Amino acid sequence: MADIGDLDLDTLDFGTVEPKEFARIVKELPVRRIAELMSGPQRKRVLDEVFNRMETLFKPDVAGKRDALIRWRITNGDDARDVYETHIADGACTVSRQDSGRDPQLTLTMAAPEFLKLVSGNASGPALFFTRKLKIQGDIRLAGGLTYFFDIPKA
C-alpha cells in the first residue's frame, strides 16, 4: 500500500483501486484535500466508480424484497451538481447517472467529501444527518438501513 502523501490523486485511476484501499485513502485524506479532488477533473470518474461498485457490493439477502428508488444529490457547495439514482428491486441494485423523473422513496443530499466518507465506511449516516451534512427527504427508515444493503469495506 502506497503512502497517501505519495499518491497523485489527480492522475490515479480509481477504477484500479480496490474498495478497501479506497476506504483507506478516504480515511487518511484531510477533508480539504477530498474537497479539492472532488472539485477537479477526477470528480466524475470517482463518482462513477463508486456508483458502479454499488451494483457489485449490493447484498440482496439483506435488502430482501424491497423495491426502492434512491436519488443521490452530490453537491459542490450549495449546487446539486451530480445526480445519480440507485434502484433496489428484484434482488439487484441498478444505477442511473441522472434523474429519471420518477418519484424516489428517498433523496439523499450531501457534499462530495461527506458522500465519499459515507460510502467508504468512514462516516455514519446518522452522524452526518445530525450534524446537518446529510439532508434526507422521504423514507427515513430506508435511509437508516441503507448502508446495510452494501458490503462496505472498512479501512
TrEMBL record:
InterPro entries: SCP2_sterol-bd_dom, SCP2_sterol-bd_dom_sf
Name of protein: SCP2 sterol-binding domain-containing protein
SUPFAM superfamilies: SCP-like
SCP2 domain span: 68-144
A Pfam family this chain is assigned to: SCP2
